[in-house]
Design a protein that fits this description.
322 residues, alpha/beta, Rossmann fold, three-stranded mixed beta sheet, 8 helices
């Protein structure tokens, strides 16, 4: 070998790379075409939360596009009632101004997808969101509903394998709640603006709760205090003092409304002997109502709860006999 030429070492042979095996738990484009497997154009999955969209997208992989609605896309208009009261309370829906871009992106993605899976939350609001999205996409049988009860790989695979139709009962329930909110709020809120402050809103829950409070306050104000008296005797037997209260008069519970009646009863009682006809022994702790079980977040409770005496109001006046 000439002196001016450098020795060239042969390159090492690389070990053959292992081919990645597709996860059998999730449908892939290469698997058998089923109701859950993506077709040639791919599958569009629509959820509510962007965080869920990222997580679910990692589970699904290729062949799936995941979009998030970020809440409701359509709602009743802000500047009008939006409910046709004369036409069976039919709601009028418009696209929320801030969500117009989001809806446009979903429509664009749906045009290139062969199937659309509506995976909004499995509750009343989520069902309504799915219904609104479906109404805007105008799908021809290629739009299905899937329910993710938990965001795990197994749960996602199970939901994709069992697509459903939109539950119209949940949709109707959400519409009824929304229409009732609008009818009550739209009618009652202006009353608050005139009497309290502009901008306040009255809802179906606050309005009913306020009425209950007002009705209770009216009952309190209508209450007329009435004078009443009780009769008690301080007695003693074998060095043990105790108090006895008048419970019945001529077989009925006494209603003593003035001092004169109380004095007259005391005068009659003083003429009679005090005789114990029966007795019953009971501990004060047994009469106490045990507190309800504490919440899981509260592990401890005061030990004095089980033995704290009950404070009893003393009678306004009493005629006693020593």
């Amino acid at each position: 070998m000439p002196d001016n030429e450098e020795e060239v070492k042969p390159k090492k042979k690389r070990a053959p790379r292992k081919k990645k095996v597709a996860d059998e738990t999730l449908p892939t484009p290469d698997t058998e075409t089923t109701d859950a497997a993506p077709a040639k154009g791919g599958v569009l999955v629509i959820v509510e939360s962007p965080t869920k969209a990222k997580t679910i997208g990692k589970y699904l992989g290729r062949g799936y596009t995941v979009k998030a609605t970020i809440g409701h896309l359509r709602d009743l208009p802000k500047r009008e009632l939006g409910v046709d009261v004369d036409n069976n309370f039919a709601p009028k829906y418009v696209t929320i101004k801030e969500k117009a871009k989001t809806l446009a992106e979903i429509k664009k993605a749906a045009k290139t997808a062969d199937r659309v899976l509506l995976a909004t939350d499995p509750d009343r609001e989520g069902e309504a969101i799915a219904w609104h999205v479906a109404s805007q996409l105008n799908g021809n049988g290629n739009i299905r509903r899937v329910l993710f009860h938990e965001i795990t790989k197994d749960a996602v695979a199970e939901a994709l394998a069992n697509p459903l139709d939109i539950d119209q009962r949940k949709v109707d329930a959400q519409q009824a709640r929304r229409v009732l909110d609008r009818l009550v709020g739209y009618k009652a809120s202006p009353v608050l603006w005139k009497s309290i402050k502009t901008g306040l809103s009255a809802g179906r829950v606050q309005t009913v709760a306020l009425r209950l409070i007002i009705e209770r306050e009216e009952e309190i104000r209508k209450f007329v205090p009435q004078e009443y008296w009780t009769v008690a005797a301080d007695l003693e037997k074998d060095g043990q003092a105790f108090q006895a209260r008048l419970q019945k008069l001529d077989g009925h519970k006494p209603e003593i409304k003035d001092e004169a009646t109380a004095r007259a009863i005391v005068a009659e009682v003083e003429k009679l002997p005090f005789v114990v006809t029966s007795s019953r022994r009971a501990s004060a702790a047994a009469k106490l109502r045990r507190p309800s079980r504490p919440a899981r977040c509260s592990r401890k409770r005061p030990s004095s709860w089980a033995s704290r005496p009950v404070a009893r109001c003393a009678p306004p006046r009493s005629c006693t006999r020593a």
